[in-house]
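Researcher: We plan to redesign the surface later, but first we want a full-length starting point. Tokens attached.
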């Protein structure tokens, strides 16, 4: 039995609102979601973040240093802000909000690379991924998001894999 089936029974007048809620609670039914749309929204989030990074990279010489930093920071905070608003305030577009949080987290990695390029910081590449992981490590608990949890695990895995293959590694 699905949530939509119980909803249709209620709309047809076969069960009352209280009975509908009791059935939903008893069987722990959730609202149905279209997995295909969820997958497409997260693939879209990755592509949007990559597009923003590529837009800045293609116009690298034409964009002043301060504008690069301000734009990167504003886009990252804006994505997280709108994602929070959709998830916590409106509460009806949770998957879209999570996709925006994913864009914000990916833009954080892009901003780390942006700062490294602007100021010509020479460092070990695993350190950038360690910083990224440290920056997004609390988001799975703050946002109660499985997607952020998977992203944090991915960031840690990338860092660990790069660290193991680094010559000067302590691991």
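Model: Full-length starting sequence:
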């Amino acid at each position: 039995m699905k949530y939509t089936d119980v909803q249709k029974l209620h709309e047809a007048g076969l069960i009352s609102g209280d009975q509908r809620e009791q059935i939903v609670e008893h069987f722990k039914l959730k609202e149905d979601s279209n997995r295909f749309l969820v997958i497409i929204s997260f693939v879209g989030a990755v592509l949007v973040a990559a597009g923003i990074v590529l837009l800045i990279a293609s116009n690298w010489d034409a964009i002043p240093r301060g504008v690069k930093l301000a734009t990167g920071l504003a886009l990252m905070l804006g994505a997280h802000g709108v994602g929070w608003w959709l998830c916590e305030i409106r509460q009806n577009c949770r998957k879209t909000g999570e996709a925006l949080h994913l864009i914000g987290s990916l833009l954080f990695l892009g901003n780390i690379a942006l700062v490294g390029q602007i100021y010509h910081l020479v460092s070990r590449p695993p350190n950038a991924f360690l910083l990224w992981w440290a920056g997004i490590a609390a988001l799975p608990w703050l946002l109660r998001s499985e997607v952020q949890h998977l992203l944090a695990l991915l960031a840690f895995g990338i860092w660990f894999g790069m660290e193991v293959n680094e010559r000067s590694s302590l691991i």
